[in-house]
Amino acid sequence: MSTQMKITPQGYNENPDLLPVPPENQKYTTRTFTFMMFSMNTAIPMFFLGPIGAQLGLNINQALWGAFVGNLAAVIIMWLNGMPGIKYGINFPVQLRESFGFAGKHIPIIMRGISGTVWFGVEAYAGSLAIMMIIYAAWGIPTEQVTPLAIKYLVIALIFYLGSFYLVMRFGLTGIGKMADYAGPVMLIYYVWLVYFLWGKPEFAPNIPKLYESKVGYLSMPFLIYLAVQTNWWATMAVNISDLSRGIHPKNSKAFPVGMLLGIVLCQVVGTWLGYASVVLTGTILPQDIILKFAPGAFAIGAGLLFCFLAPWSTDLTANSIPLMNILMATAKLRWKTAALIASIIAFFAAPWWAVDSGPAYVNYITVWASNYGILVGPIAGIMVSNYYLHRKRTYDLQKLYTYGPKGCWYSGGWSKAGYTSLILTWASCYIIAIPTKQMQYVGAIHFPFPGGITWYPAIVLSIIFYWIFAKAFKE
Question: Which residue of 6, 9, 183, 379 has the lowest C-beta tally within 10 Å?
Fold first, then answer.
C-alpha cells in the first residue's frame, strides 16, 4: 500500500517537477524496469571492462567473477537507497534533504552531476561516431579511412544525436520507459551473435587459449583493483537511483531488485565476457572498429554500428543526463523540458568533438577517471542509506521534505552537521586507508591524488556508521 499523501510545499515555491510522483503515474512494470536497466548498462565503455581485466593479467573466468561480485555490491546499495523513491515517489534532490539539509543538498547534487555530465558527453561522442561510421561505410569509403573521417566530421552527427535525445526526454519518465522497452536487449543480442561469429572463424582459433591464461590470483592486488573498477562503474548511479525507482509502484516493488539483478549484474557479466572475448580474439579494442572490420557484410556492419548508436544513447537517457538535469531543476529551478534542452546544449560542448583526433584518448582518460570517481560520491549513498534505515527507521515525513524553514529538514541553517561531518570524515578515512595500501590514483597533469582501488567498500561502511553516530550526537 502506498504511503504517499498529497503535500503542499510550505515557505517556498517548489519546482513542480520535484514533487512526488503520484501512485497512478508510477507505471514501470518489471519488464519495463528490467529493460531500462539493460539499456542503462549497455554502453560502449561497458565492453572496455573485459579488456581491462586482460590488461591486469586476469583470465576470462576471473574477469567474470570480478564483474559479478563488483556489480552485485553496487546493486545492493542501489536497492537500499532506491526504496524511498518507490515508497514516496521522490527523486534524488528531494531525498537528499533528509540527509544533508534543505540547503546542503546542493553540493551532493553538483558532485553527482559532474560525473553524469562528463559521461553524457563521452557517450554522445561514442554514439555520434557510430552514426558517422554508418554514413561513410554506406558510401563505400575504404575501411581504413572510415574511422578517421567519422571522427573529423563527428559534430554533424552529434547534433542529430542530442536532438533525438531531447525529443524523447520531453516525455519525461514515460518517454524514458517506452524507449527502454526496445533498446536494451537488442543491443546485447547483436554483440552476442557477433562474438559467436568471430569465435568460429579459423583465423581467430589460435587466440582462444589466451582467454584462459591467468597471471594473477583471486586474492592478488590486480584482481582487487579489477573488482573495484567493476564496482565503481555503477557506484555513482547508486547515489541517485531514486530518480528512476520512483517510477515503480509500491505494489510492484519486486520490479526494482529483479530489474537490477538482470539488467545490471547479469548484463555486466555478459558484457564483460563479450568485451574480453572480442578484444582477445581480434586484437582490436574499439567495438565500432571490431564491427566495421570483422562483421560479415554490409547489413551486419550497419546493424552493428546502429547498435553502437543505441547503446550510449539509451544510457544517456536513463543514467547520464538525469544528474545534470537535477542540478538544473533543483538549483536553477528549471522545468523538466527546459532542463532537458539545456542539458543537451551542455552535452554538446562536453562531447570531445572539438578534440578531433584526440577524442579516443580523451575517452580512455575519462574511463580511468570514472572508474574511481565512485569512491568520492559513494559515501553520499552510504549516508542516505544510514539516514533512512538506521536513523529514520524506514519512515520519512513527506511534508517535512517539502517545508522550508525550521519545521522542515532545516537542521543548522538548512545544513546537516551529521551529513557533512560524516562525509568529510569518510573522505579523510579513504586517504588514510589508500595511502599505505598504495591505492592512490593520480588525475591530470598536476598528478592530484585521490583514493582509488577497493576503497569504495570501506567508504560505504564508514559513511553508514559515521552518520548513525553523528545523527544521534547532533540530535538531528
Answer: 6
**How far apart, in whole angstroms, are the C-alpha atoms of residue 35 and residue 186?**
10
Task: Decide: 18 and 244 in contact? Cβ < 8 Å.
Answer: no
Q: How far apart are CA 97 and CA 109, in angstroms?
A: 11
Q: Which residues of 262-289 are buried (b: 16+ CB within 10 A; e: fewer)?
A: bbbbbbbbbbbbbbbbbbbbbeeebbbb
Amino acid in position 19: L
Taking alpha carbons only, the member of 284, 315, 128 closest to residue 194 is 284
For the chain, the residue count is: 476
Q: Which domains does the chain have, with CATH numbers?
A: 20-354 (1.10.4160.10)
- What Cα–Cα distance (Å) separates residue 456 from each residue in 70, 181, 209, 427, 462? 11, 32, 34, 10, 10
Rounded Cα gap, residues 86 and 23, in angstroms = 9
Q: Is 445 exposed, middle or buried (0-12, 13-18, 19+ CB in 10 A)?
A: exposed
pLDDT beyond 70 at 363: no
CA 77 from centre of chain = 13
Per-residue pLDDT tens digits for 41-81:
887 777 778 888 898 899 999 999 999 999 999 999 999 99
For residue 403, give every residue at least 6 positions away whose Cβ sits within 8 Å of its Cβ, in sequence order, or none. 9, 10, 11, 409
Q: Does this model's pTM top 0.70?
A: yes
The pLDDT value recorded for residue 366 is: 63
User: Mind listing the pLDDT tens digit for each residue in 374-427?
Assistant: 788 899 999 999 999 999 999 999 999 999 999 999 999 999 999 999 999 999
Grid cell, residue 90, equals 521522490
Rounded distance between C-alpha atoms, residue 140 and residue 298, angstroms:
10
Rounded-to-5 percentages of helix, strand, coil across the chain: 75, 5, 25
pLDDT confidence band for 153 (50 / 70 / 90) = confident
Q: How far is CA 233 from CA 37, 93, 287, 301, 468, in A?
A: 14, 21, 18, 28, 27
Quickly state the pLDDT bin for 161 (edges 50, 70, 90): very high
CB neighbour burial string for 191-205, b if at least 16 within 10 angstroms, e if fewer: beebbeebeeeeebe
